[in-house]
Description:
Layout: H1 2-31, H2 43-71, H3 77-134, H4 153-235
Helix pairs in contact: 1-3, 1-4, 2-3, 3-4
Amino acid sequence: MAVQLAQFTARAAALAAFACLSACSGTLLANKPVALAPPSQSVAAADQALASAAEQRAALEQQYYETELVCAKKFLVNACLDHAKEIRRAGLAQVRAIEVEAGHYKRLAAVEQRDRELAQAELDEQAKQAARAAEPPKPVAPLVDTPKPKPHAAQDRVADHAAKLQRAAVQEQGGAARRAANALAFAQRVKDSEQRQRDVADKKAAKAAKAAKAIEDEKADKARQENELKERAATH
């Protein structure tokens, strides 16, 4: 009878001590807000933050595994495991906040880099077009006439004048054709440039919409995490 009474007293004391520890730990976890991840300042810093988050995640999992082994030896196994799970969940929430922020920064940095490359390509193309437009037209090779016997001076003058008129007409036709071709080519380049500008504007709009959606998703994720913390705090 004395042995049974002693065992009952020991179990009651252990139950009271663990309940106090769980209640106190639960209160601390519930009152402690999830730390916001510090903003990344560069892609290298974001990569470092992701690597550190991966290490923290692995450490939390290892700690939870070791705690499971300890809880298995305790009288109130389920309560001990619940407390270990809550600590693990809170730690993973902080790790997730770091991963979300770093991943969001890297996505925005990639979009901005792509926009800069497109803008630079557009500037290079415009410079090439301006250089081509400023080039003088290529000279037309003059027609070489084969000397012919000139029986009379008057006939020679008439023939020379006719040849000059013919050369002038040929040159005028060639110049008109070149001017028309240059005008068509310039109009096509202007059209292509306007299309590229529209493409860049569409991509920027899509990027802004994607970034806004990512921010909204991140806010929703944080709100969901806070609600889960509040619900868990209310149940403890």
